[in-house]
Write a structure and sequence with these properties.
This protein is an all-alpha fold and about 210 residues long. It has 2 domains: about 40 residues; about 150 residues, no CATH class. About 65% of the residues lie in helices and about 5% in strands. The chain contains 8 helices and 2 strands, in the order H-H-H-E-E-H-H-H-H-H. The protein has a two-stranded antiparallel ribbon. Strand 1 and strand 2 form a beta hairpin. Helix 2 crosses helix 3, helix 3 runs antiparallel to helix 6 and helix 3 runs antiparallel to helix 7. The radius of gyration is 30 Å and the shape is elongated.
Length: about 210
């Protein structure tokens, strides 16, 4: 049986299903595109950003070099990085302090022990003289320690590497918001005065 247009009902039904499926697929694509646009962070400066928001933008905008950052974003992110670095350094610092106290107590008790700052442990005086005179001995000593101790001591350095690019990105965006070029970051290679100058410029009000 055929319709007036010359098609069979089955062919017409298949055509309608194909058109409806195409419309559904287009609608789903639009919904996904809209959701992605809403999830994408705006790289422009966010005034009055709180600590959680600033920390989130610090990590999520790590490779968005075209935006700007407000003063609140900059300072809260700086506090965030400082707390992370402090927490990473705390286990090693506590362990070194405990070793120093142990060396002092055992030395006072008559044992031949001193604290060696290069390896952060209590050692004998002969070992201390060797470690002070031979850098290769320090390296071998550190490599012979358990993996957990090596990771504890290397954690601050690993964290500094991890936050390196996000921190550079944050400074570049803050300088741009304050009206300075990203080349201002070159001043940071100058000891003491360079980083201080960069910090002062990052503290300026947004350029109008």
């Amino acid at each position: 049986m055929r319709t007036r247009s010359g098609r069979s009902p089955r062919v017409g039904a298949v055509a309608r299903i194909g058109r409806d499926g195409h419309h559904v697929a287009m609608g789903l694509r639009d919904l996904i595109s809209t959701a992605r646009r809403r999830r994408r962070l705006n790289p422009r400066a966010l005034p009055d950003a709180g600590p959680v928001t600033a920390a989130g933008r610090f990590w999520r905008l790590s490779f968005r070099w075209s935006g700007t950052a407000s003063r609140s974003e900059y300072w809260w992110a700086t506090v965030h990085v400082g707390l992370l670095c402090g927490a990473a350094s705390l286990p090693s610092a506590l362990a070194r302090r405990a070793e120093r106290i142990r060396a002092q107590q055992r030395d006072a008790a008559g044992e031949d022990l001193v604290f060696n700052a290069a390896v952060g442990e209590a050692v004998t005086r002969e070992q201390d003289e060797l470690l002070r005179s031979d850098p290769a001995a320090v390296r071998r000593w550190k490599e012979a320690r358990p993996r957990a101790v090596q990771l504890r001591d290397d954690l601050p350095n690993l964290l500094q590497i991890l936050v390196g690019i996000p921190s550079l990105n944050l400074h570049v965006r803050r300088l741009r918001d304050a009206g300075y070029s990203a080349r201002t970051m070159l001043w940071s290679i100058v000891p003491v005065a360079g980083p201080l100058l960069v910090m002062i410029r990052c503290s300026r009000r947004p350029a109008r």
